[in-house]
């Protein structure tokens, strides 16, 4: 089988985890803070907090920004459901902003139009969660300008995007946002098995996220309400969660991040090969890359212009039956039964059209030349091409 994404684990990664298993601390030891420091060094952000997955990171980000009952949060509909669920966990209303037809990220024009309308109705969002789909950053400078004009905070859902850049600064630097979130799921750029992280440049947000990650408990006397009873003393100040990343996972992340840039470079090489091959097929649209962005290429998303011979469903089914595990990123969130009753498809024409045509094909550092050619040939001729296995 050729998956659409896959982890890359070497001997050094395994040895790093084994060393922690032999140590005194499997969790709440020194390795998770070391990993957080490495994230800070890599991204240029002032603070980072490692957590069990990106969903928990988004949840904590919303809580740190004060999202609660009666608040409104906006995000892109072309994302995993966690980008919306995190606001619902806090009791907020969620709404969507249509995507840009070229980048597939949140459309700045649609965002501005929606903000103008929302202001007239006194329904402005408290937070906008922008999603860097496939590894390419949104137009953060333009979105940030709108945030200062309309008074909303920004969370970057950069689950796909560690290793990427925007205007020569690493995604995660929070140059134009309050909080940035990464994912370390096995199919992402680097992995901690499961895991995530929040970065921020604001100490107040860092402290809130840090404390909520571990049950809302503080051990620093400066943060306590009462005088310490002794060196054992701690206080719970908030209703927090057990969202800590353990040291085994952090050790894997520390090892993986050493190869992050090489992983992204290899993904670019594969994307270039796909670009070159697909120029031969007039029914395939390859990913657009904004000149201000350096994508991490978590995904390589093609769009299939249906005709009598080719359509997305036919190509998807043929690839799957041939051993190529392609995927769709994503079903628009407003189409899921949990959400659909509150939204109208006609409000998101670009997202609807994207969903009709989009297909994620395999891209990961270990993908072979033969596999790339096989994927291309199967898409080129989905009816007649033979199975790989």
Detailed description of the structure:
The protein is 37% helix and 15% strand. The chain is an alpha/beta fold and 389 residues long. The protein folds into 2 domains: 2-259, Aspartate Aminotransferase, domain 2; 260-380, Aspartate Aminotransferase, domain 1 (Alpha-Beta Complex), CATH 3.90.1150. The strands form 5 sheets. The protein has a 7-stranded mixed sheet, with helices on both faces. The protein is globular and about 75 Å long. Mean pLDDT is 96; it is low at 385-389.
Task: Give the key terms.
single chain; about 400 residues; alpha/beta; Aspartate Aminotransferase, domain 2; Aspartate Aminotransferase, domain 1; 2 domains; three-stranded antiparallel beta sheet; 13 helices; about 35% helix
% residues in beta strands: 5-15%
Strand line-up of the largest beta sheet = 2-10-9-6-5-3-4
Unreliable segments of 5+ consecutive residues: 385-389
What can be said about the biggest beta sheet? Answer: 7 strands, mixed
Q: Give the number of DSSP strands.
A: 17
- Estimated structural class: alpha/beta
Count of DSSP H/I helices? 13
Q: State the end-to-end distance.
A: 8 Å
The CATH topology of the largest domain turns out to be: Aspartate Aminotransferase, domain 2
Quote the average pLDDT: 96
The succession of helices and strands, N to C, reads EHHEHEHEHEHEEEEEHEEHHEEEHEHHEH
| The level-1 CATH class of the largest domain | Alpha Beta
The CATH superfamily of the largest domain turns out to be Type I PLP-dependent aspartate aminotransferase-like (Major domain)
Known CATH architecture of the largest domain: 3-Layer(aba) Sandwich
Helix content: 25-40%
Shape: globular
Q: Return the domain count.
A: 2
Taking all Cα atoms into account, the compactness measure Rg is 22 Å
